[in-house]
Amino acid sequence: MLRIDDSVSLFESSAICEYLDDTIAPRLHPEDPIQRAINRAWTDYVPTFSSSVTGVAYAADEAAYSAAAEKIGPAFGQLERALEKQSPAGPFFNGVKYSLVDAGYAPFLQRYYFLDRIKPLGVIEKYPRLKAWAQALMKRPSTHSFPEGEFEAMYRANVKRRKAWVSQFITDVAVAAE
Predict the structure, then answer these.
(1) In angstroms, what CA-CA distances link 175 with 76, 128, 137, 157?
(2) What is this structure's pTM?
(3) Out of 32, 87, 97, 170, which residue is the most buried by the measure of CB atoms under 10 Å away?
């Protein structure tokens, strides 16, 4: 939640990001109105995309896990096609300039890697542009609110605490962040 001038509260992540982008320089959306609209459309897709990853993380049983895992490929495919059109030179969604689209997807791509290290999903390898984009995002310090190994350990502990089906594959050894 973001409180503005003790009079307005914004509670949705995308609304908060849009407000901050409109009021604080430098802007993370492109200046061109068409490109900005395209970026906004892709930030609107973040909840659909994220549900595929979080569905895997919090599935209660193997059937729910498998059903959720099947949704990852189509979601990754959507982004792969967008990256082919939007960012032929990479490394980010808009080429060399980091954007709100990058910021929106980074946490869920990070969690995909965490889950893939718990129980290999093997999906991202089928989408080379998406994989390159994800790797570029993982290299950015802004993607990590904590040291990556520490955050991954906290993520694994949260998955275990929820007693998700995939938690049975979490070992107690130290996390090896890539």
Answers:
(1) 25, 25, 19, 11
(2) 0.88
(3) 87
Tell the CATH topology of 31-169.
Answer: Glutathione S-transferase Yfyf (Class Pi); Chain A, domain 2 (1.20.1050)
Alpha carbon distance 56, 121 (integer Å):
10
Taking only the tens place, the pLDDT of each residue in 79-101 is: 999 999 886 777 999 999 999 99
What's phi and psi for 136, nearest 5 deg?
-65, -40
Q: Which two tokens stand for residue 167?
A: 């938690």
The tens digit of pLDDT for each residue in 6-43 reads 999 988 888 888 888 889 998 888 999 999 999 999 99
Residue 104 near residue 21, CB atoms below 8 Å: no
